[in-house]
């Protein structure tokens, strides 16, 4: 089952995807509004959500 593969990967690594936000997000952050709601749909370990949490004006869901 595919789910078991990812569960094993996350168990073996402290940070599978790294700590910096996605490169695309970093490249286009200046095009985003200064505030708003951000929905983290559970992709990875939350590095993009942490990026928005550090910038005031964003509400994370």
Let me know the number of strands.
2
Main sheet makeup: 2 strands, parallel
Strand content: 5-15%
Helix count, per DSSP? 3
Summing up helix and strand content along with how strands pair, one would put the structural category as: mainly alpha
Shape: elongated
Task: Please explain how this structure is put together.
With 61 residues, the chain is mostly helical. Helix content is 41%, strand content 10%. The chain has helices at 2-12, 23-28, 47-54, and strands spanning 36-38, 58-60. The longest helix has 11 residues, at 2-12. The radius of gyration is 14 Å and the shape is elongated.
Quick description:
The protein is mainly alpha-helical and 61 residues long. It has 3 helices and 2 strands.
Question: Secondary structure elements and their pairing?
Answer:
Blueprint (H helix, E strand, L loop, with lengths): L1 H11 L10 H6 L7 E3 L8 H8 L3 E3 L1
Parallel strand pairs: 1-2
Features:
61 residues, mainly alpha, 3 helices, 2 strands
């Amino acid at each position: 089952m595919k789910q078991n593969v990812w569960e094993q990967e996350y168990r073996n690594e402290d940070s599978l995807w790294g700590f910096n936000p996605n490169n695309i997000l970093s490249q286009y952050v200046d095009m985003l509004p200064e505030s708003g709601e951000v929905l983290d749909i559970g992709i990875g370990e939350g590095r993009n959500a942490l990026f928005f949490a550090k910038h005031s004006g964003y509400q994370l869901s």
